[in-house]
Amino acid sequence: GKYASGKNFILTILLIFLASFSIEFTQLAIGRIFDVDDIILNVLGGILGYIIYLFFERIYNILPKIFKTDIFLNILSIIFFGLVVSGIVFMIIWWRKYGNRSIQWNWRRFK
Prior knowledge:
By secondary structure, the chain is mainly α. The protein contains three helices and no strands. The chain starts with 5 loop residues before the first helix and ends in a 13-residue tail after the last helix.
């Protein structure tokens, strides 16, 4: 499509880099830590997102008309929203129960 050309890929990566760099520079300016890893991971996430966009754009062109209707897309959006809200609720419950501890394996169980 018109959005998924090679020129726009480079522009997309550049914009992601600039946005990520701006956030990191702002953090440095307010006394927080500047982390290059965040910039690298954000750019890699942008590349992955762009590849996913290309994949869904190609699939969308071969889908039957029923999957392109507004009602189907609305139902799909509601399901996706429900999954996101469920994930957030799960994380809040997990945080309240376990706090700031990460998952620690008890390796003795596996011996």
